[in-house]
User: What shape does this take?
Amino acid sequence: TSSRSVCPHALCSFFFFSSWLPQAVPLRGGHWQSSLLAFRASIPVRAQPKKKKKVDVRREQAQKDRMKKKIKKLEKAAPEMIPIEDFITPLKYSDSNRVRSLPPLSFEETERRVLLMKKWCLFKHKQDKAEKKAIQTLVEAQQEALKELRLESEELYQAAIRRDEGLFPFERDGPNYTPPLPGYDPPEGKSVDITKVYTQ
Amino acid sequence: TAAAPRPWRLFGAMCLLRLPRITQPLEKEEEEMAALMEQIELEKSCYSDHEIRKLGEEEQLKRRKESMYDDDEVRGKTVIMAQDLEDKWEQKFLRFEAAPRITDADKSNNRKSLNRKLDSNLMLLVKQKIGNKELWLLPQVEWQPGETLRSTAERAMATFLGDHVQAKTLGNAPYGIYKYKFPRAIRTEDNVGAKVFFFKAFLQSSDLSQAELKEDHLWVTKDELGDYLKPEYLKKINRFLLD
Assistant: This one.
């Protein structure tokens, strides 16, 4: 209890004062002790909890501010780059035993390859020109049709050049090598996705 | 002032396309190039885990044959070799039978079926009566005031294939026009000729069993159009058809 903790302190101060003052005044332990017997009432026993409230609140506020500052600093720092897994060759593929051993290319082979590349270049060029010409005729035909339509009726023309909202997004499954097999039952299986997902 | 009524009659026609289901065969240059690309990729690559395992096992077999080890008798357990796995996979692949690229309809040249020529676009042609002649045309119907030309074309499609056809019309604008004057006998001041506006649509559903095909119809590719259409009409149509 608080009386025990205060008592030695009061006695100490009492003795200190008694050695100090050489007067014949009834010695009292300072202003905080009106009488030896009434110390429990006068000494403010509730000082500790009050101090706790203020100091703690201030301390807590200071802690919160420090945390907020740290968070702001972290946010300001530039986000970490997400590594592109495709560009990083795993180390196990740089071993020497992994190098393929093939016979070197002969002169005829390199010649054949160069000539084939040139033929391919020409082929693709012709294909591209044909495609562009086809698109050009397509656009011209459409422009002609719209011109004729305008001559007919302005209202129909305006309806024709309006944008078709339902057209895009347009989705279609591309052609495969073989047509779908009727009544084909694909084998059962489960695929587990193990791709690594990075968050910034 | 009201505009004078134009002497041209308007028609909306629909070019319904069934898109290809399989890829077209490669040209000679494309095949050669594909082979070359594969070879170059092989040359630039490293050994994979499977190949290293295979090479290691081949080495082991060779060593065993040369020095007659008694390893396999001592061990007594069968180890699956990479070569065995490859054989097993090959067997499994050979057991699978894909659908043929050239269908029965191709062989019998049944031009009414949709299963023909799976690698090219097929167009719908119907036999219609124009004037007093029966002609093969893209389905067309006369425009009625109050509707846009696109809805006229869609109505033409519905007239010949029924209401349950699922087709995606590509846009509000016409793709081409065919203008012709009526023969002098029936030409009047108000009725000089007709303009046919063509629209394009992609056939979405491959199942037309519900469609009530009333008139004579055909599904043809771009090259076969010449067998049925008049030259002037064909010229105008070819402009907006991509092969």
Summary: The interface with chain B takes residues 93, 97-100, 102, 113, 116, 119-120, 123, 134-135, 137-138, 140-142, 144-146, 148-149, 151-153, 156, 159-164, 167, 170, 172, 175-182 of chain A (CB under 8 Å). Residues 147 and 157 of chain A are 9 Å apart (CA to CA).
